[in-house]
């Protein structure tokens, strides 16, 4: 029953979800609307509880076991609690205050302040490191070792040159050529890949709905 | 080949990566401190989107879906700002939503900035940008299927309250913005495959016009959809944002709104251009060193 019930739910909702796309019958449309607007939202709310519970449990265990870098787990949990309290009770910004006092003189700790001054710089810092790794990889690994690599290198070179105004100075048609590479050969290959991917998704979805693929149930064998 | 040359090529092959990091850091930082002016010319996909919005019927709204996270803010936020400026300049209503919870803060930032720009210079009520009349920020809800399909039926059902907690039914803008039929174009600004989901659910089912603004690295993935006409134009990376900014600035000047606003996408172009050129030089030098040392081994 523990395995059959989830499989049955997936079978029924999966088939219903697909059928609702094609059947314009009012009762089906109404049921589909309830499924999408109410049932799915309730499930999504549970997944939020599950997600928060999971992250708290994971870090509490790390702290209890004094695992490697466990001190960072304190930061995660404290940040989670403070952000949640401010987010729920502290208001959006200075113009839209909440029930918690989050403004002290000219200093404020509204959710938008936390977001703009902590979340944004931290995330941007992490992502900007990519530029350095890309530069290092371009220098060390982007070699014209064979025909395929040479073609890739040439295409990348032209597209990069076309993307900067300097490319126009070399030849006025260079940006147009770079655009052509993206719009024609790139599109042709991408379409082939996309057809394959979509067919793969379709096949996997069918396998899940029909209970052939059961990996999502977890629990190994 | 002399031994000095051999040594140089070998040393170039084994250069400490920290030197590469230092050079790139300088190449990025110096143009930010001492920028050189770059006037990007609008590419075809950017011009397509601009022209479509510019000639959109007055009763149709622009919907901006902020589907990115703060890590790609530098590249994508200028697009949101330029789109908002464009819509407010030509007096088109705007609906804003976020498909990622992180997008809420970014959307709020952009709204605050652009509404301040317009309202601080407004002379009359008509010049002002009023919340609930000229634009609405629906906020975020989940899951995406609920949003993308539900908005085709009734937007207020998907978002019963807006980001600020107001009942959406009470907002005047929502009287004429019921579902996709009232949307001129929906632009998904994303660093993920989210624009594709908009095609799968919103366009296939309801035929809504779509476009996207995406990071430069993912631009190649979206060209098939631009070519097929599923996306009306596209803004690709910071260059796309800069091009759109230039078109909007020109449009604003034409309407007598020469406000000298900051265009962060255009400002960053000098740094990005220098970084691109530096990476190209790295590739060339790396290959020269590779082939020279290979010849020596032979």
Automatic annotation (TrEMBL), chain A:
Keyword vocabulary terms for this entry: Membrane, Transmembrane, Transmembrane helix
Segments passing through the bilayer: 7-27, 39-57, 69-92, 118-139, 151-171, 191-212
UniProt name for this protein: Uncharacterized protein
Organism whose genome encodes this protein: candidate division WOR-3 bacterium
Phylogenetic lineage: Bacteria, Bacteria division WOR-3
From TrEMBL, chain B:
Superkingdom of the source species: Bacteria
Residues passing through the membrane, by range: 20-38, 274-292
UniProt entry tagged with the keyword Transmembrane helix: yes
Annotated protein name in UniProt: Uncharacterized protein
Keywords: Membrane, Transmembrane, Transmembrane helix
Species this protein is from: candidate division WOR-3 bacterium
